Amino acid sequence: MTAPTDNLRINGERLWDSLMEMAKIGPGLRGGNNRQTLTDADGEGRKLFEGWCEASGLIMGVDKMGTMFMTRPGTDPAALPVYVGSHLDTQPTGGKFDGVLGVLSALEVVRSLNDLGIKTKHPIVVTNWANEEGARFAPAMLASGVFAGQLTLDYAYGRKDPEGKTYGEELKRIGWLGEENVGARKMHAYLEYHIEQGPILEAEKKQIGVVTHCQGLWWLEVTLTGKEAHTGSTPMAMRVNAGLAMARIIEMVQTVAMESQPGAVGGVGQVFFTPNSRNVLPGKVVFTIDIRSPDQAKLDGMRARIEEEALLIAAELAVGCTIEPVGHFDPVTFDPVLVGRVRSAAERLGYSNMDIISGAGHDACWAAKVAPATMIMCPCVDGLSHNEDETITPEWASAGADVLLHAVLETAEIVG
Description:
single chain, alpha+beta, four-stranded antiparallel sheet, globular
């Protein structure tokens, strides 16, 4: 097909207004959002999105994981759809744009095509994946993982939040348990637009990140078992201190990550102490180690070393230790044809761009297991994400959505 003409643009003001309207649902404490998956706020956000999609003529389907698929028909009934989207759920202290930008930009692509009277051979499906964040129900990218056959439906339904509520129960409670079998849909391609969640694009003064790879990750949940005891009256030499073991393991994770440079990161972002009292040594500590790298051998080597050294640290302190993987995906190389379309669209449109590796996991990582996939990124101020201060500009949002429009049109094929 002939490439879309350079003057095609989305409606940037409408996209920004939609982002701000969605941000009113599940407000955070400091201007961001707390719209965690399968909460009442998530249900409210889904209803708003559903209404917008229906007004744009899209046909809704929902699968048994609660993922929403909103279809704009193509002219060829036999042509597989082009899927475009991301997620509407947020971190407990999340921003207005992480995930949401991708979903609402996909909707804006459809709205713009409607405005312009453009038809495509392939259907276009605007997608809101359920539980991308994994903040409430680990692991992250849960629904897309089941869709790609990497996780089972029973496993997903049994995942529990910190209050012991299961994914399956909460999905029913908010009324978004669909009837479609997960993974039954077939994709022609998948494209996802997202904020970078890092500082590179802003520092390099680039408007568009052409995402070539996504680094792999392991989430390792460590459970340390010590002995609850009074912090004031228990002699130092007689303590079985799970908290001390945790501290030493966290320091070890830092050392392993630093010694694995370049192209590796590691840290701990979530910790639960029991009984979590000021003057009681913890009897139990549960925390999650997050390690990532685009290099498969390096990633697996970090995991092996961390597990081995964590057990040695715990044994030295007479603390019990178990380690359970609760999240994983291998490094991903995105489809070179789609990557090329994103790059050429950015150049045709006159947007500065650079190749980039995604440091975070995304639903595109699992979608890439079942179809050609790629991502587009825009800068975010100071690289902040998973933070209520997360900020982008309307101009950045529009630039990436323009590139998305052109890449989608080239993939879905303009008719006429």
